[in-house]
Give the backbone structure.
Amino acid sequence: MFATDSHHLVIAALNDSYAIFFAGRDDVERRRRRAATRAFTAAFKLGLQLSAPFLVFGLVFNIGLGVLARLMPQMQVYFVGVPLSILAGFLILAVVITAMMGTFLDYFTGVMHELIPLTESARAMADENDSSDKTQDPTQKRLDEATTAATSSRARKSTPGS
């Protein structure tokens, strides 16, 4: 990480995170933390749901290979089992890929719809902070002060005694 200077990306991400998560705005931060927690929880649940067919197959298949190895110790179980495991895994993937993609897309659209209001509120707060940092529009009094200061500095430069 240090050899490729990737740590600068981490530092920049931490610095930029303050633009999204404002300090002192408890209501918005609380909503974002809850939304992030819900999103991570749902992602973990979705990952288990999508991998369940493969986990069940792997468990049952390897238990079966273990029993077969006990029943026939002369047979090279892994020599036969690994190619069968790969083939069965691809077959399971071919059967469940459409259901997996549908489930994933439903989850993804739900998360995006949940996060859109949070990003809009973050933009509104960023615009709020940007507008407070900008200089004020010049009033007539400030314009007059600027012109008098400019003319007085020119007058001082043009006088020979100064």
Summary: The mean pLDDT is 78. The longest helix spans residues 77-133. Residues 26-129 form one domain. The helical segments are 7-20, 26-71, 77-133, 140-158.
